[in-house]
Design brief:
With 77 residues, the protein is mainly alpha-helical. It is built from 1 helix and no strands. The longest helix is centred in the middle third of the chain and has 74 residues.
């Protein structure tokens, strides 16, 4: 193998390695973007759950007050 062949082989291997690194970098960027999207979705779901929980508690409190009011009203008569 001549020095020129060795240099060509080295350049090809180096170029291939750089291409792989570029591919990995792009994949990492895509993964990070997907992770950001998942994080945003999780935060939205958390907020929705909090809102639903708050509404449910309010509804339960209203229903409890209505039951107490009806019970008191019936016993007052």
């Amino acid at each position: 193998m001549s020095l020129e062949d060795l240099e060509n082989q080295y350049r090809e291997a180096f170029t291939e390695t750089l291409n792989h690194l570029q591919t990995v970098t792009l994949l990492v960027a895509q993964i990070e973007a997907q992770m950001d999207l998942v994080r945003d979705c999780m935060q939205s779901l958390y907020r929705l759950n909090e809102n639903l929980t708050t509404r449910k508690k309010r509804l339960i409190n209203r229903q409890s007050k209505k039951i107490i009011y009806v019970f008191k009203s019936r016993n007052s008569s």
